[in-house]
Each structure stands twice: as structure tokens, then as C-alpha cells.
Specification:
Blueprint (H helix, E strand, L loop, with lengths): L15 H23 L6 H21 L3 H12 L10 H18 L3 H20 L7 E9 L9 H7 E12 L4 E10 L5 H11 L5 E5 L8
Antiparallel strand pairs: 1-3, 1-4, 2-3
Helix pairs in contact: 1-2, 1-4, 1-5, 2-3, 2-4, 4-5
């Protein structure tokens, strides 16, 4: 039973067949990771393809090091340069990148079964978390344009009470030479499907001026 979780590498030399097995296993782990990362999540094609290739790259790099201290230091220096070419990412993105790298490391060590089992378990965990409804999924950005004659402090409280669980005014600014106000609210909807009815009610209060209701862009799950 325990032989399944033993390494397939024998000695310090790696044959072409063993390397290909490790590389294919790393690629499979990358595909599973990419599918889990794309589940109910907006992920670009570039990011998903990177997740597929990353375990294979890590596996090859570690296989080349193979106990050589000098090569290991050189690889460490090369990888340290990558952080300066990276933009800030979401917590979920960082997790899947570490998942892909860990799978590649396990495959490089010849622990194929552990790499596959670890990838499947963590991916199932990510999918399970994505299926659980979170309160911040109903948070939306609301922008309302109102005439300067309208007092916005309590004007929309009745509408907010019917359609939202909570609301908060983030910004109020003038526009069009001071004849209009633009209000920015962060609202948590009771029911996301009631967005159109919510906007229609607001239009009756702001004189049918511009209103926009959109998903919160960034900041919700950033580190």
C-alpha cells in the first residue's frame, strides 16, 4: 500500500522514461489546477495556460538541479527575478500558483501519486469553496446622478431598505458645472435578480438621470 507513495526515482540519475513520466504527471496536475481555478471565476486564457505549464517547468528545473548546489543557487537567483515582473494578484490566484509549483516539485521528486492526490484534494476544496455562497458576492457598486436641488442624504433610504441588506455612501462629487451630483454607493443586494427593479425605483427619485449598478471591481479578495 505504501509503495504507491514512494518515489519512482532510483539513484541520482534520471532516465528519459522517468523524466517523461514526471513531466506528464506535472502537466496533468497543471490541467486539474487550471480547471479548478476557472470554476466560477474570471480567469484569462494566459493565466490558465500558465497554470498548466508551470508544474512542468518547475519539474524540469528541479530535475536539472538534482543535488547540484551551484545550479540550485543559480536557479534560486533566476526565480527571484520573476517577482519584480509580477503585478499584484488576488489571494485565490496566489494560492493556485503555489499549488501548481508544489505539484511540480512533487513530480520532480518522483512522488507522482502524492502530486496527483494533493492536486485533486486541493482542487476539490477550491471548487467546494466556490460553491458556497458568500455575502460579498452580492456587493455591488451603485452610481447615481442627481440634480443639485435633490437632497440625497435620506432621499433613497426607503428604496435601499426594500432592495438591499446594507448600503454605504463612498463618494459624492459635483459635475456639469455643479448642476449635478454623482453619488457612489457600495450596496449588498438582498436578491441580485432584483437589480432592474432596484434601478427603476431609483430612476423615479433622481429624475431619470444616469444610474449604473455593477459588480465590485477589485479589492474584495485582494491580499
Amino acid at each position: 500500500m505504501y509503495e504507491l507513495f514512494d518515489t519512482i526515482l532510483v539513484g541520482s540519475d534520471i532516465s528519459i522514461g522517468t523524466y517523461l513520466i514526471c513531466l506528464l504527471a506535472a502537466g496533468l496536475c497543471g490541467v486539474v489546477t487550471a480547471l479548478a481555478a476557472a470554476f466560477r471565476n474570471h480567469a484569462s486564457k494566459s493565466f490558465l495556460s500558465s497554470l498548466i505549464l508551470l508544474p512542468m517547468i518547475v519539474c524540469t528545473v528541479i530535475a536539472m538541479v538534482n543535488g547540484n548546489v551551484g545550479t540550485g543557487i543559480a536557479v534560486m537567483g533566476a526565480f527571484s527575478l520573476i517577482r519584480f515582473r509580477s503585478v499584484p494578484g488576488k489571494a485565490r490566484d496566489i494560492v493556485v500558483i503555489f499549488l501548481a509549483m508544489t505539484a511540480g516539485l512533487a513530480c520532480a521528486g518522483g512522488y507522482i501519486a502524492i502530486a496527483l492526490l494533493f492536486t485533486v484534494i486541493v482542487s476539490l476544496g477550491m471548487i467546494a469553496v466556490a460553491l458556497v455562497p458568500m455575502g460579498n458576492e452580492r456587493c455591488m457598486d451603485l452610481h447615481i446622478t442627481i440634480p443639485e436641488s435633490l437632497r440625497y442624504v435620506n432621499e433613497f433610504d426607503e428604496v435601499f431598505a426594500r432592495f438591499t441588506k446594507s448600503h454605504r455612501l463612498l463618494q459624492a462629487k459635483t459635475t456639469n458645472m455643479g448642476s449635478l451630483y454623482k453619488l457612489h454607493y457600495r450596496v449588498e443586494m438582498k436578491d441580485a435578480k432584483q437589480g432592474q427593479a432596484f434601478i427603476d425605483e431609483l430612476r423615479c427619485r433622481n429624475g431619470n438621470l444616469e444610474i449604473s449598478l455593477a459588480e465590485v471591481m477589485g479589492g474584495m479578495d485582494e491580499l
